[in-house]
Design goal:
mainly alpha; 86 residues
């Protein structure tokens, strides 16, 4: 599959400074750096807010009513309906 990215993707393994710290935080909170996080890394001061908001929505026990399993199933179904390759 060809890379059709419109924005240059920042490699988490070779990033430096504030961007590297952001990727590290994402990996700790989510267990990985999501593709959206790699794109948001171009503006790390905004990405920090996305990270915190995403964690609050994804994890259990932070005020949400759905389990993590149901949330992930919704994400996967949405990706499938939208024809995402991942």
């Amino acid at each position: 599959m060809a890379n059709t990215a419109r924005v240059a993707l920042i490699d988490p393994k070779t990033s430096k400074g504030e961007t590297a710290l952001l990727f590290d935080a994402w990996a700790r909170f989510r267990g990985r750096v999501p593709n959206a996080g790699i794109v948001w890394a171009h503006i790390p001061h905004i990405a920090k807010f996305r990270l915190l908001g995403g964690v609050a929505l994804q994890l259990e026990g932070l005020g949400g009513m759905l389990s993590c399993r149901i949330k992930e199933m919704a994400v996967l179904k949405t990706s499938l309906v939208n024809g995402c390759a991942y």
